[in-house]
Amino acid sequence: MPQADIVTVSEADFDQEVLQYSRQRPVVVDFWAPWCGPCRVIGPILERLALEAQGAFRLAKVNVDENPTLAMRYGVRGIPTVKGFVNGQVVGEFVGALPEAQIRAFVRKLAPSPTDLALEKGDSLLGMHDWQGAEAVYREVLQQRPELAHARLGLAKALIMQGRAREALPLLRDFPASKEYQAAQMLLPLAEALVWAETHPAGESDDPLEAMYRRALDLLRRGNVEAAMDGLLEIIRRDKHYRDDMPRKILLGIFEVLGQQHPLTKQYRRELSMALF
C-alpha cells in the first residue's frame, strides 16, 4: 500500500496525519476494531477505493481499542464509523456496513478521483453536443478502466451522434449489468436503425411510410435531429405501431442521447405522448 494514501494513525499523530494533512487533501478516517465483523468488510473496500483514487484522498485507519480517546473525541458510538475530513473539520460520515455503491458515492462526493473528474468532463461535453470532444474523453477513460459502463455508454452516444452507429453497436450489445444498462437498451434500437439506414437510403421505396422512415433516418445520420424527430412523429401519427414501434423506440433513444432535460426532449416527449394517446 502506498504509505501516503493509506496510513494507520494513533492518538499521538492524528492531528498531524489527519487534521493537518486534510488541509492539502481530503482524509477519510476508518474507525475500526479487530473484533468487528462489518469492519472486515468495509476496510478492504475503503483501501481499494483509496488505491483507485490515485491520490485524490488519504485513508487513515484508527483502531478504537488502541485509541479510545480518539473514539471519544469524535463521538464514535458504533463501528465501523467512517468520517471525512477537509481543512481539519469533519464534513461527512456514515456508520455501519453500507453497500459498496454507497461508500463509493460518499468518497466521490468528498474527493472525486481523476476518473470521476474525467467522466464529469465527458458528460459536460455531451451536454454541449461536443461529440468529438466527448468521444476523446471517454476513450481515454476506457483505456484505463475498460469495465466502466458509464464511459462505455457515453462513448456510444458520442459515436451515434457523429453518424458512426456501426461503431457504437458493439458497445451496446452485451452491455454489462449496471445502472446504465437500461439507458443502453434504449440506445440499441436507435443504433440498429441507423446501421440499417446505411444500406437503405431515402427514396428507394414506393410505400409513403417507408419513404418517410428512411428519410427520417437519413436526416438523423446527417445531424438534422429536429427534422428527423418531426418525420418520426408523423409516422406515429399515421400508424402507431409501424415497424413494431421502431419510430417510437428511435425517439426514446434520441431523448436518451440528448438528455432528459434538453428542450427538444421535453418538447418532443410531449408531442409523442399526444401522438400515442
Number of E-state strands: 5
In the CATH scheme, the class of the largest domain would be Alpha Beta
Structural class determined from secondary elements: alpha/beta
Q: What is the CATH homology-level superfamily of the largest domain? A: Glutaredoxin
Proportion in helices: 55-70%
| Strand line-up across the major sheet | 1-3-2-4-5
Main sheet specs = 5 strands, mixed
- How many domain modules? 3
Beta-strand portion reads 5-15%
Q: Which runs of at least 5 residues are low in confidence (pLDDT < 50)?
A: none
Question: How many H/I helices?
Answer: 13
CATH architecture of the largest domain: 3-Layer(aba) Sandwich
* Element-by-element helix/strand order: EHEHEHEEHHHHHHHHHH
- Averaged pLDDT: 93
Overall 3D geometry?
elongated
Cα(first) to Cα(last) distance is 60 Å
Question: What is the CATH topology classification name of the largest domain?
Answer: Glutaredoxin
